[in-house]
Amino acid sequence: MSLVFEGNEVGVDDEGYLLDPTMWDNQVAEQLADQLSLEMNEDRWQIVNIVREHYETTSCVPELRTVLKRLKEQSGKDKATRKHVYYLFPYGYGQMACKIAGMRKPLKVLLDL
Predict the structure, then answer these.
(1) CA-CA distance, 110 to 12, in Å (whole number)?
(2) Which pLDDT value is given to residue 110?
(3) Is there a contact between 57 and 44 (Cβ–Cβ < 8 Å)?
(4) Which segment of 16-25, 37-46, 66-75, 99-108 scores lowest on mean pLDDT?
(5) What CATH number does residue 91 fall under?
(6) Helix residue ranges, H only, 59-110
(7) Domain tally for the chain?
(8) CA-to-CA distance for 71 and 58, rounded, in angstroms?
(9) What is the pLDDT of residue 5?
């Protein structure tokens, strides 16, 4: 399976996760968000960018607690809550934010702990 935009093909698995995270860019993120019926806003972009930055420095997808710590550093404790993240990504951080950020499907659901 693949996503096609601007004449480029980006491989995805049967659930829509990118097969190669290096193929990600903002346009791919927007298309993935559209498929999840999410409009990308400033708060969603902040979390997606935290995921991408962590991945680029560690080659690992961050657990939610890591994202919350980073959110607290960037935006204060009001936004650094599970409730806020699940408001933005109602079907789960691992299932939605990581997909939009271009990560492969998480092998464990512990990302949401």
Answers:
(1) 22
(2) 46
(3) no
(4) 99-108
(5) 1.10.10.370
(6) 64-75, 82-88, 98-100
(7) 1
(8) 18
(9) 64
Beta bridge partners of 31: none
Q: What's the chain's Rg over C-alpha atoms?
A: 13
Per-residue pLDDT, 113: 44
Residues 3 and 75: beta-carbon distance below 8 Å: no
C-alpha dihedral (32, 46, 92, 88), degrees to nearest 10: -90
Domain carrying residue 85: 2-112
Taking residues 10-29, what's their average pLDDT?
A: 88
Q: What are the structure tokens assigned to 37, written together?
A: 């019926």
Query: Identity (one letter) of the amino acid at 36?
Result: L
Shortest CA distance to 21 belongs to which of 109, 112, 105, 111?
105
Q: Write out pLDDT tens, residues 58-110.
A: 988 888 999 999 999 999 999 999 999 999 999 988 889 999 999 887 765 44
Residues 6+ positions from 44 with CB-CB distance below 8 Å: 33, 38, 88, 89, 97, 100
